[in-house]
Amino acid sequence: MALLIRRTLVLVQVLDLSQPTILWTTAETLLSKTRERLDYAIRQTSKHDPAFQQKMLQMAWDRLGGRERPVSKKLTVLLASLFTVV
């Protein structure tokens, strides 16, 4: 019997459209803080499973159809940055 564990992350960002002057700053702040927390979680998980970061990157590529699929350079850079924790 094989055990399948699927890790999924969904981010829903709710912004107050009644305050357009701070909309962009709020969005950037929320994304920045989310990224910091995600990086921390990846680092902590990688302590217990050193291959975790590579597995997550491979899962991301698999969802997009694999590395052989012609993708834009921006997407390649985005995936590399998401799974490179400093």
Q: How would you briefly describe this protein structure?
A:
This protein has 86 residues and is mostly helical. It contains 3 helices and no strands. The mean pLDDT is 76.
Write a structural description.
The protein is an all-alpha fold and 86 residues long. The chain has a domain of 60 residues. 56% of the residues lie in helices and 0% in strands. The protein is built from three helices and no strands. The longest helix is centred in the middle third of the chain and has 26 residues. The chain is globular.
Secondary-structure element sequence? HHH
Number of helices: 3
Mean pLDDT: 76
Number of E strands: 0
Distance between the termini: 37 Å
Mind describing the biggest β-sheet?
Answer: none
- Regarding quaternary structure, what we see is single chain
Structure classification: mainly alpha
Shape: globular
Proportion of residues in extended strands = under 5%
User: What are the segments in which pLDDT stays under 50 over at least 5 consecutive residues?
Assistant: none
Report helical residue fraction: 55-70%
Rg, nearest Å: 16 Å
